[in-house]
Amino acid sequence: MLVRSVTRVLVALLFFHLLPATAPARAAEDPAGFIADLGTRAIDVLTSQRSEAERESEFRVLFREGFDVPSISRFVLGRYWATASELQRQEFVRLFEAFVVHAYSVRFNAFPGQTLTVRGSRVDGDQGAVVQSQIAGPSGGRPVLVDWRVSRTAGRYNITDIMVEGVSMALTERQEFASVIQRSGGELEGLLKLLREKTGQPKVGMGRPLRSHRVILEETPGSSPPAA
Fold first, then answer.
1. Exposed, middle or buried by CB within 10 Å (0-12, 13-18, 19+), for 204?
2. Is-contact 204 101, C-beta < 8 A?
């Protein structure tokens, strides 16, 4: 199922649910520092004593700040983006964001005692980098290797993909979403309906107006997950 599979990737493997590793603070001006800094700030929000609604609202701000949400949304929708109406595109971006933020916010305490260690970074294209890290549990054992693909646009970094043990989260979500659409007779509405149900969001035209998101990447056939 879409929700179980995607949520497993989001919840079990992302650093936002982890306690920060003991390490010197890094400057956020470099890719590794950006990941370490964003992680620490997200942890502060998700481990606070505020209400679930307040934590989710504050985490949404960090999510929009740290992730290239419009470009990731376009990529994970794949070829269906080209045939979607502008209204469907806007609604999908809104629902995708709500789905991811909710998954993070309500399940952050499922993995106590985990630690994230940023190990370094390597150049990835003209304005991009891949930040290498590992996640270790409190009881020891083999750590999980997590790479963060980031791009730099207008002087700031954004996450465009996460690779866990070499598996791309963006590609995983793209395959899951495509499967749901195919089971709905090739209609995007099937996926939108499921995401509305899982996030409690109203259908377009039945709730508040959508906030516009500008998508800046153009996908070409056979393209890889969003990158610089």
1. middle
2. no
* Structure tokens belonging to residue 174: 């793209």
CA distance 64 to 61: 5
- Residue 31 placed within a domain: yes
Classify residue 83: in a domain, yes or no. yes
What are 153-166's pLDDT values in tens digits?
888 899 999 898 99
Residue 106's pLDDT band, with cuts at 50, 70 and 90, is low
The model's pTM is 0.73
Phi, then psi, of 109 in degrees rounded to 5: -95, 10
Domain count, the chain: 1
- Return the CATH number at 56: 3.10.450.710
Which pair of tokens denotes residue 149? 């693909």
Provide φ and ψ at 143, rounded to 5°.
-70, 155
**DSSP-assigned beta bridge partners for residue 164:** 146, 167
